[in-house]
Amino acid sequence: MKPRSLARRFASYFVRGLIVTAPVALTVYICWWLISTVDGMLDIGVPGAGVLAAFLIVTLVGVLASGLVTRTLVDVIDQVLERLPFVRLLYTSAKDLLNAFVGEHRKFNRGVRVEFGNSDTHVLGFVTADALEHLGMAGYVAVYVPQSYNFAANLILVRAEKVVPLAIESSELMAFIVSGGVSRSAETARKA
Known about the structure:
Strand 1 and strand 2 form a beta hairpin. With 192 residues, the chain is an alpha+beta fold. Strands 4-3-2-1-5 form a five-stranded antiparallel β-sheet. The protein has a domain at 111-191: Roll (SH3 type barrels), CATH 2.30.30. It has helices at 3-42, 49-65, 68-83, 85-102, 170-178, 185-191; strands at residues 111-116, 118-129, 140-146, 153-159, 163-165.
């Protein structure tokens, strides 16, 4: 065997190994970091107990926030946080983003395709507002366009007739967009 072909084979095996191990290692590292961070904040002394305690605390707050008396307290806290100058920006942004994904008024549940520029170019996104009259843009809708490999996005305003609904689960569409189009979830959904 020639040294050059041996080097190519070695490089090929290395790349394959990297493709297999890198996502696993990154996932394990991020999970370990999250668990360590939460454990460090609660400092219980048993690895993973902090995450369990945080889960139980959040669940308990959810139970309490569902009661009539505590719901009023939650509303008061909400109003106070929304009035504080700098805190308001952080609090309302985090609250709105979380509610958009998992709240009672989810916004990322209507995946669409929109013509962009010429008719051969399209962007994928989610309709987040059906009416923009308050902006002086009657007949337009707001479309949230996540960016690939990033936790940022763009909001584009387009004529409602340019928006084409997609027959795909929102979570699959988000995975497809964020992965830069390489996610297999959208492919799997089409075959089902």
